[in-house]
Amino acid sequence: MNKANSPRTVHVIDPAADPGPLPEITVPRFVENGCTVTAVIIDPADRQQLLYGVVTRPDGKLAGSYYPADPVRCDHWRIVTADGTHYHAASEYHAVEALTTTFATG
User: Fold this and answer.
1) Among residues 25, 102, 95, which one has the least CA distance to residue 54?
2) At 91, is the secondary structure helix, strand, or coil?
3) Which of 42, 95, 26, 93 is nearest to 64 (CA)?
4) pLDDT values of the chain reduced to their tens digit, one per residue, 106 residues
5) CB atoms within 10 A of CB 93
6) What residues have CB less than 8 Å from 64, skipping those under 6 apart?
7) How far apart are CA 69 and CA 38, in angstroms?
8) What is the pTM of this model?
9) Which of 48, 52, 56, 89, CA to CA, is 20 to 30 A from 72?
10) Which residues, 6 or more positions from 79, have their beta carbon under 8 angstroms from its beta carbon?
11) Looking at 1-106, which runs of residues are DSSP E strands?
12) Cα–Cα distance, 49 to 25 (Å, whole number)
């Protein structure tokens, strides 16, 4: 057995090594239809890319979350409601709209 190509080969990583540049992450919030929308955006200086968003109802309870299934193209939006049900959305706008209206009443 060639140990160099073994899937169990362990490589030692220096914990003091410089991890390199880390992408900037911002967490903007805004209110829509009385609900708080929180988005997690990576590297806003160069190419803004939404990782996911969370919507809470006016009473502070979770309405659901949304994310692009294709994060490279920011396409194929998904919604996950507080009860775990998954839905498709046409765009980020439609995902936020659904979570702040239809799913905010649950």
Assistant:
1) 95
2) coil
3) 95
4) 455 555 666 667 777 877 777 778 889 999 999 999 999 988 766 677 889 999 999 999 999 999 998 877 778 999 999 999 999 999 999 999 999 999 988 6
5) 10
6) 54, 55, 79, 80, 81, 82, 99, 103
7) 18
8) 0.76
9) 56
10) 64, 65, 66, 86, 87, 88, 89, 95, 98, 99, 103
11) 25-26, 29-32, 35-42, 49-56, 62-70, 75-81, 86-89
12) 10
Which 3 state secondary structure label does DSSP give 2?
Answer: coil
Residue 26 DSSP SS3? strand
- CB burial of residue 41 (10 Å; 0-12, 13-18, 19+): middle
Query: Which amino acid appears at position 4 of this protein?
Result: A
Q: Which residues contact 49 (CB under 8 A, 6 or more apart)?
A: 41, 42, 43, 71, 74
Give the residue among 84, 8, 78, 22 at the shortest CA–CA distance from 50.
Answer: 78
